[in-house]
Amino acid sequence: MNVKEETSQRVARTQQIIIESQADACIISSSVNQFYLLGFIFDGYLFIQPEGDPVLFIKRPNGIEGGNVTYIRKPEQISDLLHQRKIALPKKLMMENDILSFSTVSRLQTALGMPELMNVSGEMRRIRSVKSEYELTQMRECANIHARVYEQIPSIYRAGMTDIEFQAELEREMRLAGSAGIFRTFGENMDIFMGSVLAGDNAQAASPFDFALGGQGLSPLLPIGANGTKLIPGTTLMVDMAGNYRPWMSDMTRSFALGTVPEIAHKAHRVSIDICEAISATVKSGTPCADLYFLAEEMVRRNGLADYFMGTEQQAKFVGHGVGLEINEPPVLAPRSKEILQSGMAIAIEPKFVLPGIGAVGIENTYIVRNGGLEKITVCEEGLMVL
Amino acid sequence: MNVKEETSQRVARTQQIIIESQADACIISSSVNQFYLLGFIFDGYLFIQPEGDPVLFIKRPNGIEGGNVTYIRKPEQISDLLHQRKIALPKKLMMENDILSFSTVSRLQTALGMPELMNVSGEMRRIRSVKSEYELTQMRECANIHARVYEQIPSIYRAGMTDIEFQAELEREMRLAGSAGIFRTFGENMDIFMGSVLAGDNAQAASPFDFALGGQGLSPLLPIGANGTKLIPGTTLMVDMAGNYRPWMSDMTRSFALGTVPEIAHKAHRVSIDICEAISATVKSGTPCADLYFLAEEMVRRNGLADYFMGTEQQAKFVGHGVGLEINEPPVLAPRSKEILQSGMAIAIEPKFVLPGIGAVGIENTYIVRNGGLEKITVCEEGLMVL
Q: What does the radius of gyration of chain B's CA atoms come to, in whole angstroms?
């Protein structure tokens, strides 16, 4: 299947949502959803009706052609332009209310004669959460590059480095391997730069953001991840850097021992691998997402590691999440999740431990959900490697 | 003045806005404005009344203490918590409507009994646009590091590199010099990763984003900047990478000739420097911002370079902008701008040219506006250097 057929199917799925929601139209403005539906992005409004080709109202860039393209300066022109195309103003309109600013949505609502608004963001995330074979191939390619970059970690590491010096070298390798740089996330509390490197007790620092672990960060405006901690013997180093080598991403964490580390670090790391393997051995399409969390939690408790699971002072209440065009897609693998695993979903499982005085340990892999079980796509040494 | 006095004055200025707007309260949730008003950020709501200390409703992180701090799980708790503090629900409420999502603002509005909403985003940007001496000192420090990093460009460059290979080495130097990585921008059409490197004809590629120049980019989801163009003799290389070494930033562009380039490249580059110097020699607090654009435009026309000014196929209609915690702060230096330069503003001036078959040339400097004129803080070789 080519990209054009892919995008046509995605538009058809969006039109199904419009019909099921009994709405008249949907407007898509976010980069991620425009790319998903068209294969490219623009500054403007993608207007989708229950049937027929979408109409593109474009502010920038110049040079996009087609019978369904109209250039505009401002949203107030859309009403007349719809009239010229003999399209009635929508009475019920779906928009990306979770993504676009209040001002942007309100202005468009006014420009279109105050239709009743419905939120399409969640539905778009739901359809994106089940991937096509084309998308899964991209994720496998991405995961493969992700693994090749991580394999360079032992040669990047030098005694006496700080976490940020180490991260800068790894970021360089990522960029040379084709990383887009920007790490796409969903939501208002998900700022991060290219991923997270956590050394020693910095892994305990609580962050305002909704990631699995925290870290103090380099700037008070970006309190997450590396903070300049020296990499010293007896502590651990956790690497959770972006797998953004394709628009569809992979998520992977590996941990390293700096010289000799206490036995509990090895034990907790082994439990993390065991949890991933236990989930992998039992989970498949149809499994409730909450069950993955309970399975992990039970193994953690049995090993007496509950105080260190997913943080210490602040503990994340999930053990994994969907991955795709954004790093945090549905489903979420959390105790209160109502979602059910479906074939074609891609999920990251990240049972992590933070050990005071030592640092973070554990792994994270990305898996594709199949009818028969999980397919691991982040294939890379999982043991606690000594640097 | 220490940070505490700084933040107190900023809160007082915000309270003045609430009073002038005849509102009852203001809620700040964005990272940039929380940092501006407190010196740190959290996931939650900063509730400010016309008088007295702000109240912090915090979801994450754990561990923030103080009599004005209350931990919450969701915004629906705020109404009761205000009541306990003997604070009446606001009837007129200012929120960051240009920044927060429609869903976030609507949910908070409902949780607080449907107050009338007013937008505070623009006013916050307006007060942030005039910097204190403390903030300007940060910008000077940042600009100084920015210049030291750019001075390494000749030693980074190697014949046969692509633009992205060059950029990866420069990003590494930036990170080792303390760059926060994330490049903070305002608005929904301002995605970028650490800045822009434009080589040869890639500078002509129109982008959906509102930056001065475009570039195809590496990914269809991030069509801006370097695209893998080989750095070849006879073309130019423009470097406009982030100056994010402090929360308050600097903006600077320098251009490079790869070997021998046509005379028009030298001429246009000289005109860019001349425009910066002419503006610097005549402009001061009290000058209308539009005048800076007209001055530049007149010099461009006189030199017969109008077809290449600020792009070719798509030309940006501004010659500069304010700089601060975000790279695009008020004022904008554009023909329709109604703003007047004020002492303490920091502005970037970037008269750039894109020459078909050659590439982009020109410079960008950051200046502080003073009563007597402009103070250039990005002090670094400006000529078209040959690599």
A: 23
CA–CA distance, A213 with A193 (Å, rounded to integer): 14
| Residues 63-82 in A contacting B (C-alpha not used; CB under 8 Å) | 63
Residues in chain A with CB shorter than 8 Å from the CB of B29 are 188
Q: Which domain holds residue A86?
A: 3-127
Flag whether residue B119 sits within 8 Å of chain A, measured between CB atoms: yes
Residue of B nearest to A59 (CA): B208
B111 and B138 part of one domain:
no
- Whether A1 has a pLDDT exceeding 80, the answer reads no
pTM, whole model, 2 decimals?
Answer: 0.96
Q: CATH code at B53?
A: 3.40.350.10
pLDDT in tens, B274-302: 999 999 999 999 999 999 999 999 999 99
Confidence check: pLDDT of A13 > 80: yes
Q: What is the ipTM of this complex?
A: 0.96
Distance CA A143, CA B343 (A): 52
Chosen domain end from A127, A152, A179: A127
| C-alpha distances in Å from residue A323, one per residue of A3, A332, A370 | 20, 10, 15
How close are the terminal C-alpha atoms of chain B, in Å?
A: 44
Q: Is the pLDDT of residue B1 over 80?
A: no
Asked if B121's CB is within 8 angstroms of A103's CB, the reply is yes
pLDDT tens track for B245-280: 999 999 999 999 999 999 999 999 999 999 999 999
Domain count for chain A = 2
Tell whether B181 lies on the interface with A, counting CB pairs under 8 A. Answer: yes
Question: Measured between alpha carbons, how far is A40 from A58 in angstroms, rounded to an integer?
Answer: 12
- Are A83 and A138 members of one domain? no
**Residue after which a domain boundary falls, among B127, B155, B187:** B127
- Indicate yes or no: CB of B172 within 8 angstroms of CB of A168: yes
